Amino acid sequence: MDFIQSTFIGAFELRKNLSDLLSKLQKKKTEIVVTQNGKPAAMLLSLDKYLEMKELNEELEEALNELSNRKYIKTLKGEVEIVRSGKGLKARKLFQKLGL
C-alpha cells in the first residue's frame, strides 16, 4: 500500500461525506487517510481490502514462525539436499503417495 498515493481527507470533511466515502471505498477497494489538524490520524479501508491484508498478515506470521523454528529449517535443508542429489520422489509419485 503506497501511503502517499492514498486519498487524504480531513475529519470535518469525513463527517460531512461519510456515506459517499463509504461507497467509494467499497467500489474501488482502496483506502482513505483521515487527517486531524493536517496530520494523518487514521485510515479507512474497504472490508475486502482489510480482509485481504489480514489474511496476508496471518500467512506472513505463520511463515516467520516456521522460519524461526530451527528444527523445521534443519529438516527442510535436509530434504532440499535429498532432492538436489536426485534421490527425491517425482511429483506424480509423491501425490500418489499422499493420496492426491
Automatic annotation (TrEMBL):
InterPro entries listed in its UniProt record: Antitoxin_Phd/YefM (IPR006442), phD/YefM_antitoxin (IPR051405), YefM-like_sf (IPR036165)
Alphabetized UniProt keyword annotations: Coiled coil
Coiled-coil regions listed: 11-73
Gene3D superfamilies, sorted: YefM-like domain
Entry's family note: Belongs to the phD/YefM antitoxin family.
Function according to Swiss-Prot or TrEMBL: Antitoxin component of a type II toxin-antitoxin (TA) system.
NCBIfam families: phd_fam
Protein name (record): Antitoxin
Species of provenance: Candidatus Gottesmanbacteria bacterium GW2011_GWA2_43_14
